[in-house]
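Worked example (supplementary).
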Amino acid sequence: MSLTVQVAGSAQTLPAGTSYAAALNNDKKFIAALVNGELRDLVSLAQDGEVIEGVELTSAEGLSILRHSTAHVMAQAVQQIWPQAHLGIGPPISDGFYYDFGNIDPLTPEDLDLVEKKMREIVNAQQKFSRRVVSESQAKSELAKEPFKLELVSIKGAPTDEVMEVGGAELTIYDNLDKDGNLVWCDLCRGPHIPHTGLIKAFKLMKTSAAYWRGSEKNPSVQRIYGTAWVTKEDLNGYLYRLAEAEKRDHRKLGVELDLFSFPEELGSGLPVFHPKGGVIRRAMEDYSRAMHEKAGYEFVYTPHITKSNLFETSGHLQWFADGMYPPMKLDEELNPDGTIRKPGVDYYLKPMNCPFHNLIYKSRGRSYRELPLRLFEFGSVYRYEKSGVIHGLTRVRGMTQDDAHIYCTREQMAGELKSLLDFVLNLLRDYGLDDFYLELSTKNAEKAMGSDADWEQATQALSEAAHASGLKLVPDPGGAAFYGPKISVQVKDAIGRTWQMSTIQVDFQLPQRFELEYQANDGNRQQPIMIHRALFGSVERFLGVLTEHYAGAFPPWLAPIQVIGIPVADTFNSYLDLIGNQLREHGVRVEIDKSDERMQKKIRNAQKEKIPFMLIAGEEDQAKGAVSFRYRDGTQVNAVAIEEAIRIITDSIKDRKQV
RNA sequence: GCCGCCUUAGCUCAGGGGUAGAGCAACGCACUCGUAAUGCGUAGGUCUCGGGUUCAAUUCCCGAAGGCGGCUCCA
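After joint prediction of all chains, the assembly is encoded as:
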């Protein structure tokens, strides 16, 4: 009997019992097969009618398989060292893999070295990965000592994609066999795997941490070990180099080095202060944002940072968001001499969101349909009581300023408003130098939502249409919405490919109801407006943090704290540079002249470390020609530029918000 | 909030039961120089904070605060 299959696009007839490896000509570059769109081991047997393609180690799928197999090697090593350790799950992740273990003490860096050493032995032993289909009862008896695996076997009925140990039609165990075919170790796993461990040429264990079993706080903790694996040592080194580069961009580090901001311990966790240089950047960002909002028809409002609790009762925040709020301040309580309450106090809360305040502005008088859309904008400071473990530099803080606006419009206006809003958002982000985006659509979380399904449906639909109209990639985020409505968030990729959630646009039918917002329609009836919540920076703090990392601290001139530094070849040229500096200042340029006692070389080094966009160097030759010499941050120099030309170059780059 | 690790001068880091060191930065003096570090000198620390053990704690133990890496969560 023979099989007819498609191999790499061409029809072939093969004898029954042919493995995928053989079907693929035993080509060593393949480490797995893609069969009818599903990944399989090479040693599995081809079936009639299948469409077969080879998977190379260097492909995305190949790398995932390599990393998954490396996770198995690590688990084997861990169990060889600590036999009592229970196996959790061990999937590949971007750039690497992890494996979770129960019943094991937290690992030290020395422990990791030990595991790595054991892993090398396993790799050198070239163990084969051998797949074996088992029945549920067989699996349960073989895995009697693995409580987590038993749990996975019993949830197999409802397989989830993220648990790759089980899933698909059958349960499988992968045996690791030594050169003589003896069983060394085995693990419940869906597979596929690389043919043998010898293919693992470059790996490294990166870090350990605790994690919750199956991702839920309610479950027990497991110890997670993260590792990375690559096809070659060069790839591994390249990855480690990229990590080191990313670390150099860390805004927390640059914030200190460039004297931009700090987190004084005295203030408490997650509460930043901005130093003068950080303040310049922040003001430049905010000023430009204000100007653009003004042009786009927004009106500016101001609201206080605290309020009596009834506002947040009306808005529903105390019902749905209390965990994220600072506890209340109780004021004005009066007691009788016996200690009983004579006059109850009032709770005041720091505000976690600006929307209720803007609603009060809307409600301050009757509104006409002629006023809609009404766009209220505020740089609003909000405070959220974030759990201590989640605070992270400027990207996750407890006190922040949102560039927050609320748009009140009619149902008919909503779709158009959303489209133009998305356009406005993306253009503004581009002006700040971010131009690689995708969108995420966060929809209703059944456990944490108020309002009718129909309203949610309509709001989600409108957002979805606006998103599609933008032409950007749209990723669904089921259950990710806030309690009052669905949202689109703009995910921004930075210069080294990391994504950040920045802007959010949310449609809200609920708060207008809860606040009983109204407008008078052209037919004289009273109607309820729809509210759109939106923030472009997300928070000014986070945006500044992301920009710092995006630019690695080398801000474009329009944002740079010091735009130009004058460096004299010797101090006799100080006054000549002062002349140029004063002209630049008249154009509003932030310029300093370095008149310190240092040598010129040292001044250049200092300016370089401060990442100042323009160094203007002047000595005898320049002065004689009425010129200056440019040095840029990348080391290039342009000598003998006439003063007028120099001023034009600098002011143009600032005006155009160009990077230099 | 959970798990682990960390906290010594402004920064980066040595050190270690008998109250401390380096480099850079700061300050002073000399040097006046053409594209990433001139030389010499001076000053700077309740060793994060609070308890405990000890004749003696910055060092060992406990707790807190802050930080870092994850988990969970999120602008």
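Two points are worth noting when inspecting this output. The radius of gyration of chain A is 31 Å. DSSP finds 19 helices and 35 strands in chain A.
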